[in-house]
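Reopening: structure tokens for the guanosine-5'-diphosphate complex, inputs below.
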Amino acid sequence: MVQKSLVLLKPDAVRRGITGEVLDRFEQTGLKIIGAKLLNAADPEVSHKHYYKDEEWHKKVGELNLKDCADLELDPMDIFGTKDAVEIGRIVNEWLFAYVEKGPIFAFVFEGPHAVEKIRSLVGPTYPVTAPPGTIRGDYGLDSTVTSLQRKRAVYNLIHASGTPEEAEYEIGLWFKPEELISYRRPEEDVYQY
Ligand code: GDP
Ligand code: MG
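Re-run output (same inputs, fresh job):
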């Protein structure tokens, strides 16, 4: 099942100069780069379409952030100016737009068998603190929930990777024109055909 996935190296990854190390991880597993683009920042129209989240997400994330505030003894009024979960979720959503609009962004399309799931497992879970060693976020992620809340911004977790094949198709269409994707064969595609 050959799939495509959109990968964004977010501003913290590009600025830290770990582009090569991150790409190594994907290339070593046989994932093939079929599109690449270095950008000053995400265009606001693209960022808003990319991180469009519905009210269900706002509520869920708002509730999680209220719980994080309680655990960390932070006052949600100081950080968000409200205690309403949906409103907090909307604010976090704004933080996501701002994160990729900061730039620079290095955007990639990878292709390979089960590429979506494979890349997500190499990247690791959203928060660097809970990302296991061996994953990109676990090995390189420096940011934490408390720091991001205090600074009123998204958690800097280095990388975005499409969550489903449908999401990948939508996201690739936002970031790349069809003619910007190329087609070629890696050696193992021939070697393993016996
Ligand atoms: P991902 O698919 O694992 O990247 O996670 P999501 O698509 O749910 O969220 C998009 C990005 O927003 C994440 O990669 C984080 O950088 C950031 N983010 C998500 N949820 C939160 C949150 O509750 N608080 C903060 N500060 N940032 C968040
Ligand atoms: Mg996501």
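DSSP finds eleven helices and four strands in the chain. The domain at 2-41+103-192 is CATH 3.30.70.141 (Alpha-Beta Plaits). Marking as resolved unless the reporter disagrees.
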